[in-house]
């Protein structure tokens, strides 16, 4: 499983993959993209790392348990942002009508809560992908 | 010409449907499921497409040009998320089934189960 | 503040509870159990509050994010919705009460926290389906519910359950793919996803694209029928409901199958005008499939040796009753159908739970081995008997009331044939339920069973269900007077049939 070419190429690619994923998440409201697409890219970079450096590696277990916590936190953050709308006197998931500033269209920090929502979706999706992968991988390990 | 997309979507939809029903191999059933859902997505894209339309992103510089309908795209994205999660869950189950029975063929599994009883 | 936002909060609460359980529950098992029970209990209380609000102020809506439809997603509660909500939340809470005491002995302790989380996600999605007034939102919740339900079948990891779960998942996705295509078609011809907007634009769309509208309706009905296990699309149900853990079977048979009927009700009574549907062969085909389902389900149930499989086939027959009530298109039959959703949820969950207890303590699943267990375990056997008698339709049990209204509806629609169907099927029900009851109390047991103590939570939940069966059998005017005005309104609005 440990192939030197795969490992070197993976090591070179991972930073760019993650940066690209972050870009897609943060610019989800200004350009095509968003939490789901970016989260998938980030998760795939981490899965690629695990694949290249060996499934039996201890890091896999760690990332699995961390991913489970991040997953729950991502979902709860989404709900929390939604509830903020209610607390500010508007409806659930309200954005501008609850008083969040919309900013200047085209900037990163514009569109009120949308950025926060895409970030929490990104966290949730990335960690879910990792959890799914680790679950299947662990089960394969059990069978042997 | 525009109706071609709708017709094609239905052909693909029925192909996926047929694969899901007729194949005994569970992995192929899942592939059929994905084909079926892609057909629905194609259908939705075709509904929302406006000829010569651009992506509906409002910026300061944007002038009054025609946009494609953004709603179907949003629906498709949700649909993709749903289909990815169903696929992942189904594949996880199939991996476990394969460990128990050593096959992913439904008929084979049914036969093995009836022999056990 | 709670009053204005009660609808989204009701859907969110179980989902938030599920994630809190996933976050903290793996280390503290007791915490997971308590959080799950508290969440389900508070959800039930909130649903009761919605019911009160609807009866006090009439139908009310909520716009997510403050965006009014057609731009935003709308939640809506009317009398029927509120009645279904109470059905789902109450039965889910009682089954969870049962599960919290019985599960630890039944499934792998490692997955118990995940079980609670899945259970709450399922509850949240069921409430979401009932409350949504937006077709795509309904689809998303449908998919959440089918994944959660399939996971609840497979949770224990034994191979029979996993095979049933894969089968269930595949059939279910087939159904929801078809539903999604139907929704896309509706969006194409009307340009809206909100149910009310679709309804008001449908006649114009039908004038322009008659074939597309018909095909859309067909796809939606078939997709829902697959998921609701209408005969002959029921093939996945007996395996899935038979192989699942006790509490999963109870909630799958009692609630999950019913939620698709809630969608069908929205579709047929709110979106498509009644005179439009009356002109199609839809009514006749629903009635034929329902009748066949009632008979085939009952006959297959008679042939079963495994008690849980028998109960699962009985669900196929009972779904037939609900579809019969919807297909008759008359006021009384509709009341019967909605009542039967509730009554069957109570009866069937009681039957599954008591059967599960009997299986657990006797160690046998065969019907013949349950003889004589009534003496060792009176409470589960009494609960089973009450459920069985109610299924048969003995007066003073709640099952009688829904059959009574279905019969009245058949008379009202001048379809006397279906009165005969109801009578014959009641006889068939008696044929497979009563021998178990009689053998359970009066025959001598084939296996010696040691008496064990039944956990308190399980006892309480069974007593609640028995009480509900009697209460709604004797005081049936309470639910009927709650839903009847809305149903009369539905039929009055379109001039009746």
Query: What letter string, H or E per element, gives the SSE order of chain C?
Result: HHEEHHHHHHHHHHHHHHHHHH
Give the C-alpha Rg of chain B: 20 Å
What's the helical proportion of residues of chain B?
Answer: over 70%
Strand content of chain C: under 5%
Can you write the helix and strand succession of chain B as a string?
HHHH
Q: Indicate the mean pLDDT of chain C.
A: 87
Number of helices of chain B: 4
Poorly predicted runs of 5 or more residues of chain B: none
Largest sheet of chain B: none
In oligomeric terms, what are we looking at? heterotrimer
Number of helices of chain C: 20
Beta-strand content bin of chain B: under 5%
Structural domain tally of chain B: 1
Number of strands of chain C: 2
Distance between the termini of chain C: 42 Å
Biggest beta sheet attributes of chain C: 2 strands, antiparallel
Beta strand count of chain B: 0
Radius of gyration of chain C: 22 Å
Helix/strand-derived category of chain C reads mainly alpha
Helical content of chain C (DSSP H or I, runs of 4+): over 70%
Describe this entry's structure for a reader:
Chain A is mostly helical and 144 residues long. Chain A has one domain (4-143). Chain A has helices at residues 4-26, 35-53, 58-87, 114-143. Chain B is built from four helices and no strands. Chain B is elongated and about 70 Å long. Chain B starts with a helix and ends with a helix. With 497 residues, chain C is an all-alpha fold. Chain C has a domain at 273-497. In chain C, 79% of the residues lie in helices and 2% in strands. Chain C is built from 20 helices and two strands. The longest helix of chain C is centred in the middle third of the chain and has 32 residues, at 159-190. In chain C, 63% of the residues are buried. The model of chain C has no long low-confidence stretch (mean pLDDT 87). Chains in contact: A-B, A-C, B-C. Chain B binds chain C through residues 13, 16-17, 20-21, 26, 29-30, 33, 36-37, 39-40, 43-44, 47, 71-72, 75, 78-79, 82, 85-86, 89-90, 93-94, 96-97, 100-101, 106, 109, 113, and chain C through 136, 140, 143, 146-147, 150-151, 154, 157, 159-160, 162-163, 165-167, 169-170, 173-174, 177, 180-181, 184, 187-188, 193.
């Amino acid at each position: 499983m440990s192939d030197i070419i795969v490992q070197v190429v993976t090591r070179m690619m991972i930073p760019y993959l993650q940066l690209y994923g972050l870009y897609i998440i943060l610019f989800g409201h200004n350009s095509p993209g968003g939490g789901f697409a970016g989260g998938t890219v980030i998760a795939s970079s981490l899965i690629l790392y695990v694949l290249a450096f060996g499934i039996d590696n201890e890091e896999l277990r760690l990332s699995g348990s961390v991913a489970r916590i991040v997953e729950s936190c991502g979902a709860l953050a989404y709900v929390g942002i939604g509830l903020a709308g209610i607390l500010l006197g508007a409806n659930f998931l309200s954005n501008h009508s609850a008083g969040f500033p919309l900013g200047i269209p085209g900037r990163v920090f514009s569109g009120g809560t949308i950025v926060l929502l895409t970030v929490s979706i990104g966290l949730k999706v990335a960690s879910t992908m990792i959890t799914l992968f680790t679950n299947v991988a662990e089960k394969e390990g059990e069978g042997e | 010409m525009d109706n071609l997309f709708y017709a094609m979507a239905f052909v693909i939809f029925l192909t996926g449907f047929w694969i899901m029903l007729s194949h005994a191999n569970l992995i192929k059933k899942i592939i059929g499921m994905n084909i079926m859902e892609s057909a629905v997505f194609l259908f939705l894209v075709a509904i929302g497409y406006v000829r010569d339309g651009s992506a509906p992103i409002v910026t300061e510089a944007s002038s009054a040009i025609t946009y494609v309908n953004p709603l179907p795209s949003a629906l498709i994205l949700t649909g993709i998320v749903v289909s990815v999660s169903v696929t992942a869950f189904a594949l996880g189950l199939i991996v476990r089934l394969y460990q128990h029975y050593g096959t992913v063929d439904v008929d084979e599994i049914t036969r093995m189960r009836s022999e056990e009883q | 503040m709670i009053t204005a936002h009660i609808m989204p909060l009701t859907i969110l609460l179980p989902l938030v509870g599920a994630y809190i359980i996933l976050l903290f529950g793996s280390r503290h098992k007791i915490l997971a159990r308590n959080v799950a029970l508290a969440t389900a209990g508070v959800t039930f209380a909130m649903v009761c509050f919605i019911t009160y609000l609807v009866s006090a102020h009439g139908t009310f809506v909520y716009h997510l994010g403050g965006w009014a439809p057609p731009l935003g997603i709308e939640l809506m509660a009317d009398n029927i919705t509120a009645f279904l909500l109470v059905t789902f939340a109450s039965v889910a809470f009682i089954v969870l009460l049962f599960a919290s005491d019985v599960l630890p002995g039944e499934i792998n302790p490692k997955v118990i926290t995940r079980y609670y989380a899945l259970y709450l996600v399922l509850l949240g999605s069921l409430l979401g389906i009932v409350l949504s007034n937006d077709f795509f939102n309904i689809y998303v919740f449908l998919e959440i519910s089918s994944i959660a339900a399939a996971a609840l079948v497979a949770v224990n990891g034994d191979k029979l359950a996993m095979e049933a779960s894969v089968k269930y998942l595949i059939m279910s996705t087939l159904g929801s793919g078809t539903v999604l295509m139907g929704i896309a078609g509706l969006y194409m011809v009307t340009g809206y996803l909100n149910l009310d907007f679709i309804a008001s634009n449908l006649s114009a769309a039908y004038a322009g694209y008659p074939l597309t509208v018909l095909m859309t309706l067909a796809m939606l009905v078939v997709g829902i029928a697959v998921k609701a296990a209408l005969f002959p699309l029921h093939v996945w149900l007996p395996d899935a409901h038979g192989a699942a853990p006790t509490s999963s079977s109870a909630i799958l048979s009692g609630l999950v199958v019913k939620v698709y009927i809630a969608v069908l009700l929205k579709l047929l009574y709110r979106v498509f005008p009644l005179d439009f549907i009356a002109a199609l062969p839809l009514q006749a085909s629903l009635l034929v499939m329902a009748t066949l389902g009632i008979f085939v389900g009952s006959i297959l149930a008679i042939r079963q040796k495994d008690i849980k499989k028998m109960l699962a086939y009985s669900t196929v027959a009972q779904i037939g009753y609900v579809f019969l009530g919807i297909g008759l298109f008359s006021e009384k039959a509709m009341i019967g159908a909605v009542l039967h959703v509730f009554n069957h949820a109570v009866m069937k969950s009681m039957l599954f739970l008591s059967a599960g207890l009997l299986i657990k303590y006797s160690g046998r699943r065969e019907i013949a081995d349950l003889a004589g267990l009534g003496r060792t375990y009176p409470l589960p056997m009494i609960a089973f008997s009450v459920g069985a008698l109610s299924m048969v339709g003995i007066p003073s049990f709640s099952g009688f009331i829904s059959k009574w209204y279905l019969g009245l509806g058949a008379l009202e629609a001048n379809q006397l044939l279906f009165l005969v169907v109801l009578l014959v099927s009641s006889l068939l029900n008696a044929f497979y339920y009563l021998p178990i009851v009689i053998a359970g109390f009066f025959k001598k047991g084939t296996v010696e069973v040691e008496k064990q103590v039944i956990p308190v939570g399980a006892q309480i939940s069974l007593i609640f269900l028995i009480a509900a069966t009697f209460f709604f059998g004797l005081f049936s005017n309470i639910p009927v007077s709650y839903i009847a005005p809305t149903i009369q309104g539905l039929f009055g609005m379109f001039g009746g049939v």
